[in-house]
Amino acid sequence: METPREITVLQAAIILISTIIGVGVLALPRIAVLSGDTGAPLVTLLGILLAFFGLVMITLLGMRFPNQSLIRYSEVILGKPMARFGSIVIIAFFAVLTALASREFGEVVITSVLRRTPLEITVIVMLLLAAITTRNDITTFAYIHHFYSPIILAPVILIVILSLKNAEVIRLLPIWGNEPNGMFIGVLTVAALFQGFFILTMIIPSMRRPDRAMTASIWGMTIAGGLYLIIVIASLAVFGAEEVKLLLWPTLELAKTTSLPANILERLDAAFLAVWVTAVFTTLFSSYFLMIHATTELFQLRNHRMFSLFFLPFVFIIAMVPDNVLQMYELIEIVGRFGLLITVVYPTILWVVALIRKKRGKNHATRTNR
Amino acid sequence: MQLARIVKVLCWVLLVIPLLTGCWDRLEIEERAVVLAIAIDEANPEAAEEENDVSHLRGEVPRSQKRMLRLTAQIAVPGRIPLGPAQGGGGSGEKPVWILDVVGHTVEDAIYNLQQEVADRLFLGHLRVIVVNERVARKGLQNMNDALRRNPEVRRAAWMVISKGEASEVVKLNPELERVPALYLLAVLDGAVKQGKMPNAFLGAFWSALTSKGQEAYLPYVEISKKRSILLSGLAYFRGDKLVGTTTPLEIGHFMAMKGINPGGYSALSDVPGQPGAVLFVSSDRTAKIDVNIKNGLPQVKAKVHIEGDLAEKSNAQFDLKDPKTITNIEKAMGTKAGKAFEELIHKTQKQGSDILGIGEIVRGKHSAYWNKSIQTKGKWQETYKEIPVKVDVTISIRRVGMKAQ
Amino acid sequence: MSFWKRKKNKNRSNKGSIGVPHQFLEKHKNEQITGNLEDTLAIIQKLLGASDDMVTRRFHVFKEYAAALVYCSSLVDHTLINMDVMKPLMSTPPKGGHWNENRLKEVIKDETLYHSDLRLEIDLAKIVHAIHCGETIIFIEGIKDAFVVGTRKIEKRAIDQPGTEQVIRGPREGFIEQIGTNLSLLRYRLQTADFRIKMMEVGRVTKSKVAICYIEGIANPKLVEEVKDRIGAIDMDVVLDVGYIEQFIEDNHLSPFPQIQNTERPDKTVAQLVEGRVAILADGSPFALIVPTVFHQFYQTPEDYAQRFLVASAIRIIRLISLFFSLITSSLYVAIISFNPELIPTQFAVAVAGGRAGVPFPAVVEVFVMEVSMEILREATVRLPQQVGGALSIVGVLVIGQAAVSAGFVSPITVVVIALTTIGSFATPAYNAAIALRLLRFPIIILAGIFGLYGVMVGIILIINHMLSLRSYGVPYMSPIVPGNYQGMKDIVIRAPLWWMKKRPASLHTANRERLGDDVMQKLKQPPSNTLDPVDVGNRKEDSPDGDTT
Description:
The structure holds three protein chains of three kinds. Chain A is 71% helix and 0% strand. By secondary structure, chain A is mainly α. Chain A starts with 8 loop residues before the first helix and ends in a 14-residue tail after the last helix. Mean pLDDT of chain A is 83; it is low at 364-370. By secondary structure, chain B is an alpha/beta fold. Helix content of chain B is 35%, strand content 29%. Residues 86-92 of chain B have low confidence and may be disordered. By secondary structure, chain C is of the alpha+beta class. The relative contact order of chain C is 0.08. Chain A binds chain B through residues 38, 111-118, 121, 124, 128, 166, 170-174, 176, 178-179, 238-243, 245-246, 253, 256-257, 259, 266-267, 306, 309, and chain B through 4, 7-8, 11, 15, 18, 24-25, 125, 149, 152, 155-157, 200, 204-205, 207-213, 358, 361-362, 364-366, 368, 371-372, 376.
């Protein structure tokens, strides 16, 4: 698909950051602590590394085939039937991911802020917002992420800093955790939270300098991962491991415990949620966009707009599948772990096969660099 | 494409319809009954008669819930709490709050019974103080904590205090200094923290301590003094979710010293060695370090506390403070006394197995191998805590003596 | 943008296909006048006879040749005609004697008529058109051509402070309706040979003159081409104001945000031209259009640059804050009061509840009604004459607000919030952007009333997404924030000192990027020389060099 090459390295990194940071952050500390006790930061770190491995694979593939998205070059590497099958699985997976993310956010909003609003409305509003915005082209996509990223990063950092006055370092020890049983599963689940990085497959063909994609990946993952890590550390230090296990959304509780100095605003969680809408929006926007672009590429069409509203009902129906919050989290964990196969294992296979079969993409012709 | 356009229009219509059906969560601020404080007391089982069948049918109470609670709520009346300067005695002397009480089997049950009686929807977002009767606390706070945790409106920054007598009395008290009683109570607690008289033991901290394996929880302990004001009379310490003992006010100071919580706020009256008279020492800054070593399979605790402060008062003029040696003597004497007092406090808590200092957390964190092998659970630590030897060394530095030279 | 793709392919012919009055001249397109004075005058009067302000003055040239003067008395400068046309023609001829036709024509043209704007014309349609443009026509018996003298003079107002854009510090000149004067205001500020003006005629009936101004070597030539194309595609009968042109040449007609700036100030126009933009002026309108435009220009004033940078930065920050406030304050109020009162401190929450206790309506209805009333009030005060207007605004705001509160119709805090919002919206210098933001307030209030803070965020996200997808002649609307241009950022929130802003905005892709000389920074860094420092300069008092000053 002919997209103008406009996206800079900085924008690519920012797209990664704002896609990854989404609704998963709210439940993250609990997931990490459930599996690793006070070793939660360690679990998070390992999860980051695992996700980073997948990201590196994708970046390498993208740099090898700088003009094509994953859908295209997987056909070159594996041959049409297998690649088509893989692509369909990817599209389906991201449809489910979008649905579950919007559902999770809907649950958070319904439970803590808007208690009487029907869940369907909250979910539909988010999905519609994402769907309507997908009608723009990829440059606007980059602009949107670029614009919202400070709005996402600032409150998180602010809340972490403000909550530190209630933190106690002793709660972070011992580093390995007292009962490191389920750490491995925990690492997988945490890595699953980073799966937004897959958006890079659609971005690299539109980057001005695809050869510098690795820099973007490293920066993006460092900042997003770093943010996740400090949230886990802050929650652990303020609440303590056992307490975090009891909180459904520890990050939200962290916001609840903070108050601005001089008590200008108290109970900051409502404000935090409001700002968090942008983070969730960017994540949903990315995964929805990925889904639509992948479909457009698969069917080799030009215009992706017609799909944006078309997919909406399906995604919505999937979002309504779980019956309650607990079922939803179960489903998220299962789907997330399964997704690692797609986002980490599949690219690795692709890369290895590409190496073996010596497939390469055409280097992008000399373009006037601005 | 005609079809595409029809679909588009249909989508827009579908979009707008839910918006028109109404705003579900809109609840105007004046339509909410803002609950500022609640008090929980025990009620006689006969009080079950008084209850209306809101959450269950009469006679069909779940077997496990025979116990009855009385909940007293202080609700703010909109319009009677003016923000500006008081106009002529608070508007013809009407009370700015409305006090109601109901009974229920559990906390949430009681709240629903209350809602049945109140016109506006109860709003717990501004619930600042929860007063619990000592007797209820002795029986266990598990249920209450659960109810409060699940409710998203309750803020973790709220205060929970244990009252010596009837909790409802605390909530009904009408002190002169504030228009709204609950806000006065809040001011007492916040002020105490600011003045260094109490650690910041708000609800969230309470819960964190409660769930920690190596720490026990504590809450402020209040009583009504001569029916006109609220006295902060100590800390209530827990073992698990059951209250097992209380301290005296000065012991709060000891506790804060050992934890190194600043600012310092307690003052101690002390004899001057070799002089007839006493001085009043006011602490301003505390630092503490607790070291734990494992010896003979048991943790040994050595705490070093350093308190800085000023001399505020000399009890008589028969001696003077010109000599720096006098000061040093006072410091030494006070240090020894304080060390003994601190150890006393710890022994007191050890009797009940209530480790409010969090020594267990230090063991769990720094000596995790030992913890994983020998302790592992909260219950085991509560037992082990009773045995461990503790030594406290206190050093005191008197920095200033006020404006008077001698 | 689709409007443009379509318009470009359409044929720009058939100007007379909708039966507009100038078709009248089409009939006589290729006619010419003869040398016969009487015949010519008869034809002319038949064509012009309907209007009574057309004057025909017969006289004798050089005291012997019959001649006539035709002009439109409402458009000409009579003094000019008297002194520069009639006087030389009616005096004794130079060198006396008779000449033949050609020689007479030459004498008159080259030696007699003093006027600097003179041409010969034979085409009848052009002659009639010239009369309607305020030129005087001289017909002389025996000469086939007519002399066309430029004598146009139209009453115009004095150059005054522009009404809509007042500054404290800066020039007080504003454009007026006559394009000639406006172009002169621009020319004297840009006395460079690179400043180009291209004239076009737009509007079939009004035939307004439109000038496209740009600086060659700075403005991107493709931009100038695009502007010319778009204006050339306008095929309307009337263009009364440059705003008509604006609506045809903008990119997105549905967006509430303006993509073209308009200004009454020549200094602002010149500043934009130097940055690489193109200005469009139309005869009859005191506004100039500036393309392309991005969002951050809407809260900048030329005064920002005339002030020192700390002051200018502080004021700009205040403007930004007020812009933001005017958009979301009332919806935040609705959201917090109706959905999340736990956000405000307890005492305040209870007091607010008290203030609202007697009010019958929910907060969202109250705020909505008050906002609409404020808009009505504002619109009404624009139409009122000066004397009544001032009083009414004070009355409106204070008394009616106070009365409404006492009547229990609104709560006092609502009034405060609305007042803040309204005042905030006045701080945006650009009227069109201010209106856009004012109008956008309403959907956000409704969303806040339905979903609370969540709704406010959704509304803001929608607006921002829209702005991010908007383009003005290809330039992203949110430049330079979004494509992340560092040089451009120096002028967004703060106004960096003039010597920092070394390059022109990158988004305009100008041919020449440098603004500042190379060694300006160096010269600035040197410590100022204390010329009049009393110690250095030495003091003499009555011939004694002690340095004693009184």
